[in-house]
Amino acid sequence: MKSIPFLRGLFGLCVFSATLLGAEEAPAYTTTESGLQYAITAEGDGPTPQPGQVVIAHYTGKLADGTVFDSSRERGEPFAFTLGQRQVIKGWDEGFALLHVGDHATFIIPSNLAYGEKGAGDRIPPGSTLRFDVEFVDVKQHALADHLQEIIDRDGVDAALARFVELKEQDFGDYYVSEAQLNSLGYRYLGKDQLPAAIAVFKLNVELFPLSGNTHDSLGEALLKNGQTTAAIAAYEQSVKLDPKNENALRILAELKSADVVK
User: Fold this and answer.
1) In a structure prediction context, what are the per-residue pLDDT tens digits for the chain, which is 263 residues long?
2) Is the residue at 136 inside a domain?
3) Domain end point (choices 140, 160, 195)
4) CATH number reported for the structural domain that contains residue 67 in this entry
5) Sequence-distant contacts of 71-78: CB under 8 A, at least 24 apart
6) Burial class (CB in 10 A: 0-12, 13-18, 19+), 123
7) Do 37 and 118 sit in the same domain of this protein?
């Protein structure tokens, strides 16, 4: 993908905004000291989020040429992150702190507040200024994934499982339950070779989202890494049953069955 030069300064960002908007009437942008530009296109009447709270939002991300590189709406599920915890790019942490629940807004985020000179994979070239059209859907006091991580790290897996049972009986109250966040937490432990914690989190995700092929796939990966081949095969088979196009699970199942290594 052709790299887009980083547009420096207010003039460059304004040109960038006009390019993306095309013939549409440009909204009135406010520029912060960091260089973030934001415009509220529809006002909500909800509260502003506080650091540590969970922001729930829909978004569409675009490059300077208008190419959509990511969209929560296409996935059919809003994105959630904990404000001020470095879970997202700097422009998002800053931008959403300026909004109210219910707001629709556009962010123009310069490279230094986004993915910098490294870019992000093959979708976002180095030095890219990005546009996000966002809808601030809701805010929650806590994220279940953050809460479980805190307990696991402090008190261990068993304590976290007991807390999960307690919260589930309360229908999780004001805790935001997200398949994606729990999956990310599981992989965080998997990457650190904390296999009991990873498996426990993935199992909770399967319990909460049993019809998601992805939750079973992730559990299968952790079980396989832990040497539990028979259980891993069962998890991958369930993933394929729910998502027949899961090429990763199909490939691993073929490898495991051809090797005939079962434990």
Assistant:
1) 333 333 333 334 444 454 554 545 667 899 999 999 999 999 999 999 999 999 999 999 999 999 999 999 998 889 999 999 999 999 999 999 999 999 999 999 999 999 999 999 999 999 999 999 999 999 999 999 999 999 999 999 999 999 999 999 999 998 999 999 999 999 999 999 999 999 999 999 999 999 999 999 999 999 999 999 999 999 999 999 999 999 999 999 999 988 765 55
2) yes
3) 140
4) 3.10.50.40
5) 77/179, 77/180, 78/137
6) middle
7) yes
Q: 79: closest CA among 87, 67, 69, 90?
A: 87
Dihedral, 42, 44, 106, 32 alpha carbons, nearest 10? 120
My answer on whether 159 and 122 are in the same domain is: no
Domain hosting 235: range is 142-259
| DSSP annotation string for 147-201 | HHHHHHHHH-HHHHHHHHHHHHHTTTTTEE--HHHHHHHHHHHHHTT-HHHHHHH
Tell me how many domains the chain contains: 2
Taking the whole predicted model, whether its pTM rises above 0.70 is answered as yes
Residues annotated as part of the active site: 59, 69-70, 89, 115, 132
**94: three-class secondary structure by DSSP:** helix
- Residues 238, 68: Cα–Cα separation, whole Å: 32
One domain for residues 135 and 153: no
- Helix/strand/coil for 87: coil
114 part of a folded domain? yes
| Same domain flag for 115 and 238 | no
Please give the structure tokens belonging to residue 120: 């992000």
